[in-house]
């Protein structure tokens, strides 16, 4: 059952929201964090495992050097200081998907600390989110709950897959984020989106929230206006979309406000986001650090990063996503709404690559936001999984620009590309989709249409040129849609005067 909620505007009028986020980023290294087991998503359960992944006695971890490099680059992109010396620790807790009964993580010596991320809201407002730390750790396995709703509540049994156990993670922890006021939910969504954009730009993660390669825990507390002490926070776990981050933050603000207004108190606990119902539900009391019995990991040496190595990696950083968006917006000369549609659809990379392949920004936007997205939705898949490349889109637009295809024929060609029939030009050749450009053939079809509809011809000759639409329709039908309607209209008006 849903909790009582206070109206959102009333909630932020009476209480100040304070946010915090823990974003877990899975690195796309070839192997796992402390073992040579493959780091692959989607393989059969328990196929990418070694004795270390299963926590068998006598196994010893070895550090993945690429994961260290990726973690340093991410720390630098977050504006963090990089520790010259840091170490791993054991974080003890028992859960079936953690076979060692502890997780190798970092505690008091993270590899990156004291940073900040500039977050751009939809109206261009900039918000600085302070970063406390970004530390390295390994992921746990994955439980699949059987029976009931598929969640642990009401499940009759659970299956465990250790393929994810040991996958390298970087956990990015913010300091308390204050001053966001009524825009707190939007700030949450845009911040997690900024982290996703940064790791994609670095090339260190697949950054697929739907596949769990980025997971967000949202900490939310509220305090009465004028109170200095922070309120009790809740932690909503493993939110897996940007939209859900915004909704979960908003819901918790409203729920907590209703509890406090009724004279109750907030329980420090983890909560779980229920996407279908749009609510959070209670999980378990939140553990403090002491409960995890952290201790230095005895089987791993400290990680030492010389200053010159840090500077070498700093030189590899790509353009910051915020700066890139501003540059592209200016270069493409799109309206704010048009550009924001591309960003919201997460198609900035595709549009940019299509422009580089020769299309205009307007045309690239039209195809990716329009027809390609429609085809993906119709097939209940993602744009990425359709298999259409930026080069395909640029070639398709070139065929339209040179007059080989109309927009209607281009959509048919695109369907052929999606069906795996080849490039746009190959589909056009195989399907015979090219526009009929032979004026003789078009004139013959026009004459047939005039003969079938003499009254329309009479209207055109009388100066009622809008009547030409009926003849255009007949000609297009006769040409199976493979004619340029503009050219057909020109020939109709010319023919009618002869």
TrEMBL record:
Keywords: ATP-binding, Ligase, Nucleotide-binding, Protein biosynthesis, Transferase. SUPFAM superfamilies: GatB/YqeY motif, Glutamine synthetase/guanido kinase. It holds the Pfam family GatB_Yqey. Residues 349-496 form the Asn/Gln amidotransferase domain. Its EC number is 6.3.5.-. Allows the formation of correctly charged Asn-tRNA(Asn) or Gln-tRNA(Gln) through the transamidation of misacylated Asp-tRNA(Asn) or Glu-tRNA(Gln) in organisms which lack either or both of asparaginyl-tRNA or glutaminyl-tRNA synthetases. The reaction takes place in the presence of glutamine and ATP through an activated phospho-Asp-tRNA(Asn) or phospho-Glu-tRNA(Gln). Heterotrimer of A, B and C subunits. This is Aspartyl/glutamyl-tRNA(Asn/Gln) amidotransferase subunit B. The gene is gatB.
